[in-house]
Design goal:
The chain is an alpha+beta fold. The protein is 27% helix and 38% strand. The model is unreliable at 1-33 and 359-365 (pLDDT under 50).
């Protein structure tokens, strides 16, 4: 019994020692686990850090800027419609005239004589016709004679009308409100039919003519707003009123025209100008021009983060740009734009995102 008692006592001590050891080891393991960094933090520490900023699309009015030339909206070369000598010039170069104002006086003597002759011929033929109509009933004339004389009366009326028209053409008037831009005759000069003697232009409204590349013409529509900037920096406003249906055979570009108002009657016809055409509204992002980059195919774009914090190149269309800012389309409504560290990450690589407000330490990646 004593031997058994000793053995039992030893076993009891051994069990107590094992239990105590297990108890101590359990707390040491728990403490070690508590001191170890989380797995997510370990993985994040091994990822490249990139800085990003949130960007939201905004309404943007697209524009097309091209070079054009300012021309009068209406311009006409004044040509003689009758042959006659110049008597006087009621207007001078540079004068503003209204529609119907007298521009030139030509000698009327020959035209007045022709008119008098035409009136006399018509009167004679009408008398002859009336007499023959009375003789028909008495048998002294035939119906064929009456028809022939009636035809002669009609011809005489046409001659008289032409004589009156010829006389009126010795007093040419302004076909529209405008400015006498050129006068090439003096009193005493003789004008033949078709000779140019002056030019009248309307500058109250101006026409701006330009050529558009074939890749841009699809964005244009009649009535679009146009701003015209002159060489002195001043602006005129109007709208697009003509787009050619076919391209020029040599340049493959399309001619367009815009009408702009010129309320101050400025002398700018013939001058060069830049046209800015509003071509529609789109959703676009405004971002720093420094974020624009090129991919392996020389496409312009930016680098963004997806929902899994992976880096992607997004091609964009540059709508407008300055030294520091740019407007681009082609992105989602909301994007996380990489602003720093994109050059350290490959396409599709997962990174550690840091908002713009926090500093990115690339040395700690």
């Amino acid at each position: 019994m004593p031997a058994k008692g000793k053995l039992l006592k030893l076993l009891t001590y051994a069990v107590i020692a094992i239990v105590a050891l297990v108890w101590v080891l359990r707390f040491d393991i728990k403490a070690a686990r508590d001191d170890a960094p989380p797995q997510a933090e370990t993985e994040a520490a091994s990822l490249i850090s990139v800085q990003f900023s949130e960007s939201r699309a905004l309404p943007y009015t697209k524009t097309l800027e091209i070079q054009g030339q300012v021309e009068p909206n209406y311009a006409v070369d004044l040509r003689a419609e009758v042959a006659a000598r110049v008597l006087s010039l009621p207007v001078s170069k540079g004068d503003r005239v209204a529609e119907g104002d007298l521009l030139l006086e030509l000698d009327q003597d020959a035209r007045k004589a022709q008119l008098a002759q035409a009136e006399a011929d018509l009167h004679y033929k009408q008398q002859d016709l009336s007499a023959n109509q009375r003789l028909v009933d008495a048998g002294g004339s035939t119906r064929s004679d009456v028809l022939r004389l009636a035809s002669e009366v009609a011809d005489a009326k046409l001659v008289l009308e032409e004589a009156r028209l010829g006389l009126s053409r010795t007093r040419p008037v302004a076909p529209f409100d405008g400015v006498v831009d050129r006068l090439d005759v003096d009193p005493g000069d003789y004008l033949s039919i078709g000779d140019s003697w002056g030019r009248l232009v309307d500058i109250s409204t101006l026409k701006v003519r330009a050529w558009v590349a074939q890749q841009d013409v699809a964005e244009l529509a009649l009535g679009q707003k146009v701003r015209v900037r002159l060489l002195d920096g001043s602006l005129l406003e109007g709208e697009l009123n003509f787009i050619a249906f076919s391209a020029d055979e040599e340049t493959r570009s399309y001619q367009i025209e815009a009408i702009v108002q010129n309320p101050d009657a400025r002398r700018i016809a013939g001058a060069s100008a830049s046209m800015t055409i509003d071509t529609g509204e789109v959703q676009a992002h405004r971002l720093s021009a420094a974020l624009l980059t090129l991919d392996d195919h020389n496409q312009v774009g930016v680098r963004v983060l997806d929902a899994d914090n992976r880096v992607h190149f997004r091609p964009v269309k540059l709508l407008s740009g300055e030294m520091t800012q740019a407007w681009v389309s082609g992105l989602e409504e909301e994007e996380r734009l990489i602003t720093l560290g994109a050059g350290f990450a490959e396409e599709g690589q997962q990174v550690h995102p840091v908002p713009l407000e926090e500093r990115v330490e690339q040395g700690s990646r």
